[in-house]
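Async update (no meeting this week)

Hi team, since we skipped the sync, here's where things stand on the single-chain job. The sequence we agreed to prioritize is pasted below, unchanged from the tracker. I ran it this morning and attached the output directly underneath so nobody has to dig for it. Comments welcome in thread, and please keep replies under the output.
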Amino acid sequence: MGDEIERCDEVRVHEDIVDNVTGKMPEEEILYDLAELFKVFGDSTRVKLLYVLFEQEMCVCDIAQLLGMTQSAISHQLRVLKQSHLVKYRREGKTVFYSLDDDHVRAILQMGLEHIEE
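Output:
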């Protein structure tokens, strides 16, 4: 019984609640974009990369060494993260440093960690 979904004993729509939430629902395109964003977090390599950058701005060489992956594999994943506006980069001479794009990304990671550690 522990996995059973609880249901209402009677079928009765609470129109005021449904209308209230309907008025607050984002457009379909926005919800689609949100789902696509969460798909990016569905890959453990990308999550590792984000966590590394949560801790410290780093170059591809250092990330590859830390994660035991090739620079090519790291670059590929960083490209996906950059296209999703989760990471950004800055150039210093011949070295490119990556970091989280903004505090929203930091907050998403922090909340995710807190949620699974409960």
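Quick observations from my side:
Helices lie at 15-24, 28-40, 44-55, 60-67, 71-83, 103-117.
The CA atoms of residues 1 and 9 lie 17 Å apart.
Reply here if anything looks off.
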